[in-house]
Amino acid sequence: MPTATATHARLDALEHLSRWVPPVGAFLAGGGPVVLLGFSNGGYEVATVAGYGVALWWLVLVGFLTGALPRPAPTTGGRVVLGSLLALAVWGGISLGWSADAERGLTEVARMVVAGGTLLLGMSAVRAGHARVLAGGVFAGLSAIVAAAVLSRLQPDLFPAAGTTAEFLATRERTSWPLNYWNAIAAAGAMALPLGIALAARARHTWTAALAVAPVPVLVLGIAFTLSRGGIVAAACGLLALLLTVAPRPVVLRTLVGPAIGAATVVGAAWRSPALVDATGGAAQSDAGGRVIAVAILATAGVALLQAGWTTADRAWWTPRLPRPRGRRVVAAAVAAAVVAVVLAAVVAGAPDRVSQAWDDFRVPTVSATVANAGGSDRLGSISGNGRYQVWSGAWDAASAHPLAGIGLGSWESWWNPRRADTGFVRNAHSQPFELAAELGLIGGLLFLAVVGIPLLSGLVSGLRRRALASDAALVAPALVAFCVALLIDWNWQISAFAVAGMTLAAVAVARPHPDATTAPGAAPSGPSGRRRAMVRTVAIALVSVGSIAVLSTALVAPQAVDASRAAAARGDTTEAAARAADGAAAADFAASPLLQLATVREQQGRLAAAASAARAATRRTPDDWRPWFVLARVETARGRDRQAVTAFRRARQLNPNSKLLAP
Hints:
Oligomer: single chain
Shape: globular
Distance between the termini: 93 Å
Order of helices and strands: HHHHHHHHHHHHHHHHHHHHHHHHHHHH
Structural class: mainly alpha
Radius of gyration: 27 Å
Low-confidence stretches: 367-372
Mean pLDDT: 86
Number of strands: 0
């Protein structure tokens, strides 16, 4: 009997533990990739995002084929999103045939492939009935990134990498680490802010409600430390969407009170210290940061306790019963009335003239130099677009000139450099829809709008329906609003940690949960037609997964060869460095970076003729990129071939006439 009892107890314990595996897996699926990519320079480098993508698609392939992961059940909109992503990746791959830089274009294809795998994995978690846990994981991952950014500002001595990033970007007063871009840090905070409030307002447990609002003061401080006007706009749009879509709205308003007070307290404490605002470094910044850390701990604890109190009171019926959400017609009428009132008030106050002046200020690129050197409230009060109007106009000109095929994925920088005038150097168009419209034509722009717009509309519509209380899509809609705004005004899509977070939340909006979450949604189909459909789905999953892994593996060849060559050169082994670069150039016959690395190594070895040959081969692979021509000019100068050096230098200047490096 004792043995049987002990065995039964162990079985009960294992069964209880097994119940925690799916939700923990969903939480890790939401937050793990965000943290992994976020602390790997944001996942910007192709080696990072493609390497992660290979692991992701292997997980999708093995998990779906073995039944370890539930098969996704997308809505009609979800099928359109998946189809649009597939079409976007295929069309982008085809455009490499006329791209000015096929290597860079393949990197962008890899990002699309990773977005597709992320969407499928998120849909699998939703199918298992863990949509909120998945969203909670995303929130935790984004909060961890912003909290690390804030801590690097408050205690800079503990984060030497943050100091290196600030020196490289020459923006110590704007927090950039760990994503290495201040606007991306602000965008991550803008996404997390309304998501945390929504999760807290609709939390099923007291402890989850408390944890969801606890990071809000730190998130607001992180956005403030970036001095990002775009991040503030994205956060404001997300909070507005929160009030319109998440019900019951009185609970949402009540949930906002504690975090607002806590955030104001923390930001006020930080902003009173010039050492923190200007990031002066040294003991003064660390001492001030220590005081703010104490205030932040008290604020987060107070916010969490207040929310826990509200939730406990609701559970015990100590608070008045709140009304059910109103119908979408009533909400729409209220929103329309509010918009009309704001417009009338603006007209009375003379807003049209001010808007016209603001638009003129936004379009003047020369203001950007003043704005870039301004600090604190001076910068936040500026309307300058920092050259965005010119860049967006250039992208639209490219799309208009090539409306069907575009200029080719990865070609934006090469197309823009000869045409830019007053704006500084940019590698991306600072707007993903505009950039894709330029590179892939209007079809590419529309496909991308479908990828990000359908989940957004699905969430917003769900929030305005009568059954909004039962909708998980409405919970993520405010975060998706911030996500789309950030993509519209900046190049955050290339920050893969941010893109993965957005696509994971998109899965919540366009996937269906299983009707009975306690039942495994992978039952074998019955009947011949059911088995045929299952076989077709299995073959499709296998083909797409294998194709995705092949694309990602190809994208890894050139960067891995360059990294290996640089590592060997750093050790002083130039022979190994040259061999690695040559192997990469042969394996990736479309990529110029291994050839440029080979030219550099040959130059170090004193083999100038071989260096010139490698640089010349790089110019043939990317003839519209100024860098290979500049390297060729440098090598030919060292060889004493002045005429060839001048010809190469003139070509480099022709491709990038406004570069200070190439100034006469």
